[in-house]
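Fold it.
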Amino acid sequence: MRSKFKNASEAFDYFYIKIKDKGVEFDNTKALFNVGFYMARPLENKIKSGFRKWSQEYADAEWQWYEEGHPNIYSLEEIYGKIPSIWHKMADAKGYVNSNYGYQWKRNNQLDYVVNLLKEKPDTRRAAISIYDAKEHEQNYDIDTPCTYAVQFTIVDNKLNMSAYMRSNDLWFGFCNDQYQFSMLQNKVAEMLSIDIGWYYHHAHNLHLYNDKT
């Protein structure tokens, strides 16, 4: 299985075929387990496959929502003009979700902590942002469990590298938009540090396609 790609679109095309051919039947999906790969050019983050019809307009709106860090889906509606059905399914009665990653990386000032840590000690191994750490079960995780465990940053050769670790990742919707948001986060942190971007490593314990996409 390949572990290195130029960009997200190349990775999407490869894993779309690989999951269809080699995926294991698992809970209404075909899935591959413990999939990890590098993307050498993280900011080439547009999914270009014609059959996917990926929307940069929506991805940009989601990024703006994450930048605001407001975990209410009606804030997304103000930006995008509508709310995709998946967010309605995950929201509580008041419209709040756990899976606004911007809310998560701002929680407890994690993003500022990571940036300051990298400034003070560029070779740190502690520049990590926790998103789903299983310590918050009093929250409504039954219908909205964040798919990402954590994001970690490492400076090597004066370039900012990033790894995203996911418990579960739907290739069709999840990967296409998640990699966009995380590559934008990587770029944001690199700009705050005034250094260039390096690689982006993406790991999913379960990388899958729902059966209606296979």
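The longest strand covers residues 196-210.
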